[in-house]
Design brief:
This protein has 19 helices and 15 strands. By secondary structure, it is of the alpha/beta class. Strand 9, helix 11 and strand 10 form a beta-alpha-beta unit. Bound molecules: pyridoxal-5'-phosphate (PLP).
């Protein structure tokens, strides 16, 4: 088979290798990189994953996309180093499970992508003796995962923008207490403003000399590692090679979901993806009405990492299903909607329902969820309500719990009146000094800051 190339969803810049896509982040025409074909794994290989460690599965999946761009022994070592923590699956009732993606250093699922991407970027930079400035916008958890993934590396500087009033104290401290090569900007604006600022910087010719790269969910280097835990879940739970699974994925920028879609296209037996959003319901509305409208400004919900009015990965999903969407969210060519709807369905969950779900899950099953995972769990049950035939003791489902409940102590306390115990990675933050730069929502101020560094 010919070599995988990565092309832009806007179709106006040349195709590149994995390495070039990883280093560039975004394509020059403002599109997102996507592989020209998705490698498939045989049933035997996938079934064989039940005998493997997480990092071994990661190595196999990622190696199929890289096709030797990182020599196999090196890639294996990177995967082993990146994935040195547990990925627990918790049975709730019948064959309905929660996958806890919160055992990494920042207690969020973003660690899975960031740690592997960081190691791959460092591998290529070292080889070329190059430096790089990583710019990233965060609504809370990406920033700390990126910061931790790149912290202390000599050839990489990181600048993180976050919306001043939209992240929790703990999320902020995870970024501002690191120092060294990690700089943090508190922007007087919303997450969408942070994201727009970063996108503008990438397109700015005056900044090209800075060797900018992105580490947001727009980087293909994040998506491929995110397909691995879907294989992991299935390998741990499937009872035979054709056992089909329903995944419920709490979604904001749809990077997590894109990982799942890649896994399905690689051959993982997936019955359906349930896309669960908060009140930013542009995608559920699109699935129902066929018309896509971004939400500006995005709505502020308690599942704050999903306050996204236009998911950056939507263009990739539309492309994978045969359509085209530009970076502003205009659909230039309709995708195969029937196929899209066959593979996935979408539900929006209100804050009120999110709180109610946290309460009910705890009271009925002793299941502790935080707001993002609760949106996923509720989304699954909304799906059951619409499709009762799936609600049977044989159907295997996995809902992704994307953060540790202790990251949302006020919310959990007000709903359940308990204080979730902090994982070790978070318990030392309160004693450390914070460092950040306050900034108005003004691109020139941001540009000046970058040029002065
Ligand atoms: C980022 C994030 C999400 C949303 O993930 P996307 O890939 O943007 O869809 C969900 N939950 C948590 C805790 C997050 O940090």
């Amino acid at each position: 088979m010919s070599k995988i190339e990565y092309y832009s969803t806007n179709h106006c810049s040349p195709s590149v290798s994995f390495r070039e896509a990883l280093i560039a982040g975004q394509a020059p025409d403002k599109g997102l990189y996507i592989p020209n074909y998705i490698p498939t794994l045989s049933k035997d290989v996938i079934w064989g994953f039940s005998e493997k460690n997480y990092f071994e599965i990661a190595y196999t999946v990622i190696n199929n996309f890289l096709q030797g761009e990182i020599p196999e022994a090196d890639l294996f070592a990177l995967a082993k180093d990146a994935y040195n923590f547990d990925v627990p699956l918790e049975q709730v009732y019948d064959r309905n499970y929660i996958m806890r993606l919160d055992r990494g250093p920042t207690a969020s699922f973003k660690d899975f992508a960031a740690r592997m991407m960081g190691r791959m970027i460092q591998y290529f930079l070292k080889k070329d003796n190059r430096k790089m400035l990583i710019l990233t916008a965060t609504s809370g958890d990406t920033g700390s995962a990126i910061a931790n993934a790149f912290y202390g590396l000599d050839n990489i500087e990181v600048v993180i923008l976050f919306p001043k009033t939209e992240v929790t104290d703990r999320q902020r401290k995870q970024m501002t207490t690191l120092h060294k090569n990690i700089s943090v900007i508190a922007l007087d604006g919303k997450f969408d403003d942070c994201q727009a600022m970063v996108k503008k910087a990438f397109a700015d010719k005056d900044l090209q000399k800075l060797d900018l790269s992105s580490a947001n969910s727009i980087n293909i280097g994040r998506l491929i590692p995110q397909s691995v835990y879907y294989f992991w879940a299935w390998s741990q739970l499937a009872s035979n090679a054709d056992d089909k699974i329903i995944f419920s994925v709490p979604s904001g920028n749809f990077g997590d979901l894109m990982g799942g879609i890649l896994a399905k296209h690689m051959g993982l037996p997936v019955e359906k993806f349930v896309i669960a959003t908060n009140e930013n319901d542009e995608v559920p509305v699109y699935f129902r009405s066929g018309s896509y409208k971004t939400i500006e400004p995005s709505r502020n919900c308690i599942s704050s990492a999903m306050n996204v009015g236009h998911p950056s990965n939507m263009a990739r999903i539309i492309t994978l299903y045969g359509g085209q969407m530009d970076e502003k969210g205009n659909i230039l060519k309709e995708p195969d909607v029937a196929k899209l709807k066959n593979d996935m369905t979408a539900f929006s969950v209100t804050d009120e329902a999110t709180r109610q779900t946290i309460r009910e899950a705890y009271n009925s099953y002793n299941l502790l969820l935080e707001p993002h995972g609760a949106v996923g769990w509720k989304g699954l049950h909304d799906f059951y309500a619409e499709n009762p035939s799936y609600k049977n003791p044989y159907q295997l489902t996995v809902t992704l719990e994307t953060a540790h409940p202790a990251k949302f102590p006020q919310e959990i306390k007000s709903i359940l009146n308990i204080e979730p115990e902090l994982p070790a990675s978070l318990s030392q933050l309160d004693n450390k000094t914070e460092e950040m730069t306050d900034m108005p929502n003004n691109y020139e101020a941001f540009k000046t800051y970058l040029l002065k560094r």
